[in-house]
Write a structure and sequence with these properties.
Blueprint lengths: L16 E3 L6 E3 L5 E5 L2 E5 L6 E6 L2 E5 L5 E5 L2
Antiparallel strand pairs: 1-2, 3-4, 4-5, 6-7
């Protein structure tokens, strides 16, 4: 007798996906987040509930390379 195994597996989201812990909204880093610059920092806010997801130093940009990995660099 063969044991019953549920083979339904949810694929993980891409590594460049941000998640709002307050409401569950998901989007790519360069997706629909509200981006606000304040002095030396840039804040990414959820477009649904307004929660701040992350803050980064101003002048640092994030992109994805050809393999989907998130990379950071100084903006020119």
């Amino acid at each position: 007798m063969t044991p019953s195994i549920d083979l339904t597996v949810r694929s993980p989201p891409p590594k460049t996906t941000l998640h709002c812990l307050s409401c569950g909204h998901e989007s790519a880093v360069d997706g629909d987040w509200t981006v606000r610059a304040d002095g030396e920092r840039v804040a990414y806010e959820c477009p649904d509930c307004g929660s701040t997801i992350t803050t980064r130093p101003r002048g640092v940009t994030s992109t994805t390379d050809g393999e989907g990995s998130l990379t950071f660099g100084q903006s020119d």
